[in-house]
Every structure is written in structure tokens, then in C-alpha cells.
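Hi L., both proteins are below.
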Amino acid sequence: MKFEAPVAVTEIANMIGAELVGNSQLMATGINEIHKVTPGDISFVDFEKYYSASLNSAATIIIINKKVDCPQGKALLVVNDPFSAYVKLVKYYRPFEPATKAISDTAVIGEGTVIQPNVFIGNHVRIGRNCIIHPNVTIYDHSVIGDNVIIQAGTIIGADAFYFKKRADREVMYDKLESCGRVIIEDDVEIGAGCTIDKGVSGDTIIGRGTKFDNMIHIGHGTIIGKNCLFAAQVGIGGKAIIEDNVILWGQVGVSKDLVIGKNAVVLAQSGVPSSLEGGKVYFGYPAEEARTKKKELAWIKRIPEIWEKIKHLS
């Protein structure tokens, strides 16, 4: 998320009660997770094993729970609980805005777009030209939808990320990491009925141009879907996955978080993808492997009883 105007690092430090170490003249331009940061961004780290990655990232200002050497030109904001400090900033710079009507006055809707009954369109939403938004669709604040997009009934665009921090010493154990990202749906996309597409925690969930979704598909926070992908019903994709152009995922494929499926890959129905896949190949099974190899394995598995009987008779 980018701020409307740069904010002095001293102001940020005062807001979260942090000790400022390093360059006190910096101006923050946004808030971001570590995998999305760009120069000017504020990020946070609260596990020592991630210190190096955070300190050497593009982030200019890092909220951290221990005083360490500050990289040149950056600033550290030292607090006991970086997670809570980060959430405080998100709530301040992207506060929740209650809706007062079904279609917000701040929404911008392009010429030729049809909005069917019972659609909810939140604050600061942008919808392009010649779209069709079917009944009971919900589009959360700050979502961006391109031209010629079709969204079928009952789909939800821009719900919060499923992202929590465990506090094992408390009865209510999970703290919510507030989401300040967006969903961006590019031109010529079709989203089926009953789909859910979560916004990014701080960056954008992106659905590339020409991609088509069947019904009952879930896209996790910060996922990037390429152009001209085709997803059949009940596909589920974890947060921060990258699905490159022209990928086909057939029904009930499950894709884990933080991985890449390469361009032109095809994953056959009911497969599970726990790690990255190369492009240009057909995959099947769990864990998903090249379909030809996996089908040969299954053929041999079916022969196990036969082979076992032969082995018994050899003794």
C-alpha cells in the first residue's frame, strides 16, 4: 500500500512508540510485506532468522524487535512487538470505512457496465467499461476491475487475507494481520459463481488479462495469476503463489502458498501442488509430478498384489 503523501519516519516512530535508529530524515512512502517491498516502504520483522533478509531488502524503514546494526541509508524502528506496531500503522493509514449504501458514491463505474440487483460495491472501487456484474456479488473497498469483465453471481472480491500471528500464551491465540492491499482484475477476465478472491496483505492480488475461472474457486492473498489462464471448478490457491501465463488447472486442484507454476503448465484434476512446477508440462497426482510418470507409477501399484503372490510362491 502506498501513502497518499510521504510521511516522516520520526512521525511513524512517535505513532508506534519506537526507538529510531539510523537515518532520521527519511520519508516513508508506503507499507509492505517483505516479499513486496520497494524503496520507501516500511516493513517489519520479528524473527531473528529473517533479520538478514529484511535488513538487506529494498525496504527503507524496518520495524524490528531488537537493536542491530542499521544498514546505511535506512532506519530501524525498535519496538517489543513489531507485528502489533505494523497493524497499528495499517489501521491508521487504511482505516475501515463503513458502507452507507449498496454502491458507494466513491466508486467509479465505466460506461456500458451493467450492475445487476443486490450487488455491493465498496468505497474507492474502480470498474471499467462494458462489464457485467451479476446478482449478489460483493466487491470490497479499493478493488480495481478492468474492461469487459464478467463476474458471476455470489462471488466475493477483496475479502481480507487469511493471515494471523499465534500468541500461544493467551486464551484467544490468534492476532489478525490487517489487510491493506487490493484485488486487481485485468481486462477480459471472467470470474465464475461463488468464487472468493482475497486482497493482498499489503500488495495486490492480480488476475491477468483474459483469464477465466469456473465456479467455486478460491484465490489466496497476494497471489498473481498470469494472462489467459483457465481454472476449473473448486481450484484452491494459497497466498502469494505465482501462476504464470496460459496455465490450466483442472477441477479440485489444490495449490500451496509461496510457489511458482510455470507458463503453459497443465495440472490434471484433483492433483495437489506443494512446490513449484516447471512450465510447459502436464502434471498429475499428489505431490504433482509429470503425468506420464505418475500414471506409470499407478499402473505398477495396481500390480502389487499380483507381484506379491508370485513372490510368495518363490519361497
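That was the first. Here is the second:
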Amino acid sequence: MSNPFPGMNPYLESPELWRSVHNRLIVAIADLLTPQLLPKYLVDIEQRIYQISGEDALLIGIPDVTIQRSATTIIETTSNVAVAAPPTQSLKVRIPWPVEVKESYLQVIETETKKVVTVIEVLSPTNKRPGKGREMYEGKRERVFGSHTHLVEIDLLRSYQPLPIFGNDIEASYRILVSRRNQRPLADLYLFNLPDMIPQFPLPLRAGDAEPIVDLQALLNGVYDRAAYDFRIDYTAAPVPPLSEADAAWADSLLRERGLRG
């Protein structure tokens, strides 16, 4: 079964699936662009590696640790305030154990000069959630903005605050930012919501070069089919993270119409 949603599938945002979706989408974009850009450009898949710990580790699919408490007794103090006595058994708690995070992104490199012309990022929860991951990504983002490199930033996640931009007060669930080095501080922002198809966008290159059009919707649908996500997703359950009330009603109607809910 193909992707039942006309645009982004909110079930793919689940922490259990997103890493797979992210990696497959990165490869799909590279496979689309490489034959169109040769021989002048190469497309490389790069990785950044860093460590997170504590609560941030939950972002990358590590299951939460349930805090198990033993039975406690209530004792009476001289102040007549009831307090819990210390447990007679240990508590299960989480320590700030470092976890290595690897995130893939794309670089379009000019073959002759070996210079990076365009960086393509598909955002992950660690890029958006407050903490070390977001701080590191924002630092890289600012460095690209201050360079001669174009940036394409694809945000297919509803969770957490979007990365900062100015001049937009329109709220949307998803966005694609295309920042051309010769147009900064201006950039092109594509906004879309759950019922919308993902918009196509041109890939910025050197001035005068033909720019391929990236059909992200077709790429995502292809990833969905090849990974057989329809066998992994339970459409009778609510997606994680949850939808807004309006989007939940719309999604319920769509899934019932397509026979995925009773």
C-alpha cells in the first residue's frame, strides 16, 4: 500500500521510525541529484557525530526508563505532617550516560574546485529540541549563512520550535528553507501543512547552472514503498507526536475513507 497521505505522513515522525526515514530520504535525495549534476558536481553523504546524555537521549529512540518505586509507609511527625518514609528498596533512576549520535546530511561539491556549493539538511529532533544538539546545529547553520555556500533545510517534524527565521508570522506544520548565498539575508521559505502536498523546490548551484527540481513528495513516497512502512504502521492508533484537534479529525476521515480505520 502506498503512502495514504497526500503530503507528509505524520506516522513517519514517530521516534521508532524517524531515524530510518531520515537516512533513507537522505540517500534518495542523493540518488536523485547525482546523475543530474555530474560531471560538474558530486553529491556526498556526510555525518556529524556528537554525544548527548540524560533526557536528550530519548530523542534518538532510546526507550524511557520507568522509575519503579517500592511500597512506602506513612509516618507521623511531631508537626502532624504526613511524609513518606524512605523506601526500603532501591529506585530505578536515569544517569547522564553519554550516547553517540550520528546525523547524515548532504553536500554538493564542485568537482573541479572541491568546494562545497550547497548543503542539504533534513532536520532531526536533536536539531530542534532545546539542548546540545540544537546548539550545535544552530552553530553550523550560522557558519553556512556566513559563507559562500547555499543551504537547503528540510523540516518534516512538527515537534519543537522551528529554527529561527525573520519576516514570517505564518504558522505551519512543515517547512523547507532555501537560502542562496547571493540573496542573503533573504531566503525562500516553503510552508505546508498536513493536508498539503510537499512543495517542489529548485536546488541552488553556481550562477548560470541549470538547477534541478527536487520533488520531495515523490522521494518520500518512494521511501515509504521501498521500506514497506505500511506493514509497520498501525493506522488505527494515533500518531506520535499527536496531531492537533483539526488535523486529527481530518486524518481520521482520510484513513476511514481509505479503509485503514473502521
